[in-house]
Design goal:
Layout lengths: L1 E2 L10 H7 L8 H5 L8 H7 L4 E5 L12 E6 L9 H13 L5 E3 L5 E6 L1 H13 L26 H17 L5 H6 L12 H8 L6 H13 L11 H10 L9 H9 L3 E2 L41 H16 L1 H9 L9 H21 L6
Antiparallel strand pairs: 1-6, 2-3, 3-5, 4-5
Helix pairs in contact: 6-8
């Protein structure tokens, strides 16, 4: 994708503007929390989401002619669905003490408390944190929660790995500002420990070695063109510069790129798959100009290396059946993805070929993550 040269520089969205002016997610929540009111302002509501709460109105309890019956929802962030016993007991108590006597499990492996009044919000969040929980980043335009298998296998290393990885990803994506603890715990961090070195390294890592970088280098090699790679820490930071004209081209996914194309901010030039995409059939492929060019990101289903053949077949058939379902296809399309399916043998061959291709490109182009 390249920028439309005549496109004027656009201001950030309303929410992005609020975040920029919030003093790292502090204001106006911190100031308005001190006011003897039943609710927050519209600006504070947006920032409050990053602290794990939504402001709501219970219409059933509202008396006609009076102001809205403001209440708050709190959502916990529980990577991998892990809920310590003391946290569950605390949530159960908070539901009765400050909430509407309900405790709701979410599809994202967390819990929600409803019916909390503004004056009790700080005490409720503090109690959650003191009992090994958190609401930080559980709402708003964040990852909200990182899910993982919840089966409590203690002797299965792959499950432990999934839990550890979920925690690592959650820590990596958690807001780094100290506002959460300043506002809700008066600056006290209830649990302190050194951060996982792998998480620290991932946060500091630049955009070298990513699929965006590799695809760019692959294109440069195949087309004999010069493109300066700028190592953005994710395309979310690159797209605003592309829109504003600071950079000229970007290889990106349908999910993050096409919304900007649809509103005229960007122009889509080609897809990097071997064949034209069913999601954009009129868009040419790079391979139509550079025969053999293909760069796609994909997700697959894996099992243990000693998985029985008959079980492998059953899982493969079930996955293929699900991917053929019309509703599933429609949901994938909304995400900018195309379900492929196929046999285990074809999948294994594709993985092997992909590894060989990218290994050669990395070596030929002398790519490193530093």
């Amino acid at each position: 994708m390249v920028n439309i040269s005549t496109l004027p520089i656009r201001k950030p969205s309303k929410v992005e503007g609020l975040k920029e002016r919030s003093n790292f997610l502090r204001e106006p929540v911190a100031s308005e929390l001190l006011l003897d009111t039943t609710h927050f302002s519209e600006d504070a509501i947006q920032i409050l989401k990053f602290h794990g709460s939504y402001q709501q109105d219970d219409r059933d309890n509202r008396i006609k002619g009076q102001e809205k019956d403001y209440q708050f929802m709190l959502r916990t962030r529980n990577p991998g669905g892990f809920i310590p016993p003391e946290l569950y007991l605390a949530l159960d108590q908070l539901a009765d003490e400050y909430g509407n006597h309900t405790l709701r499990a979410t599809t994202r492996q967390g819990f929600q408390l409803h019916g909390i009044l503004k004056k009790n919000l700080k005490a409720a969040i503090a109690a959650i944190v003191h009992n090994l929980g958190s609401t930080l980043g559980a709402c708003g335009d964040l990852n909200r929660n990182v899910m993982a298998p919840v089966a409590p296998y203690k002797n299965r290393p792959e499950y432990q790995y999934a839990w550890d990885y979920a925690n690592g990803v959650a820590d990596l994506l958690t807001p780094q500002a100290g506002a959460y603890y300043e506002i809700w715990l008066d600056g006290e961090k209830a649990i302190s420990a050194e951060e996982d070195p792998a998480v620290v390294a991932a946060r500091q890592r630049n955009g070298n070695g990513t699929i965006v970088h590799l695809t760019t280098e692959y294109f440069k090699a195949q087309s004999d063109t010069y493109i300066l790679h700028i190592p953005y820490r994710g395309t979310a930071l690159a797209i605003p510069d592309l829109v504003s004209g600071k950079v000229d081209v970007l290889f990106d996914s349908f999910v993050t790129g096409m919304p900007h194309v649809k509103v005229g901010k960007l122009r889509a030039l080609a897809v990097t798959s071997a064949k034209r995409s069913a999601l954009a059939p009129d868009m040419p492929t790079v391979a139509e100009v550079l025969p053999g060019f293909e760069s796609v990101t994909w997700f697959g289903v894996y099992g243990p290396k000693n998985m029985p053949a008959d079980l492998t077949t059953k899982v493969n058939q079930a996955v293929n059946a699900a991917l053929a379902d019309a509703d599933v296809k429609e949901r994938f399309a909304r995400l900018g993805a195309e379900p492929a399916g196929g046999t285990p043998q074809a999948f294994a061959a594709m993985v092997k070929a992909d590894n060989a291709k990218w290994k050669k490109i990395i070596a030929d182009r002398k790519i490193s993550v530093e």
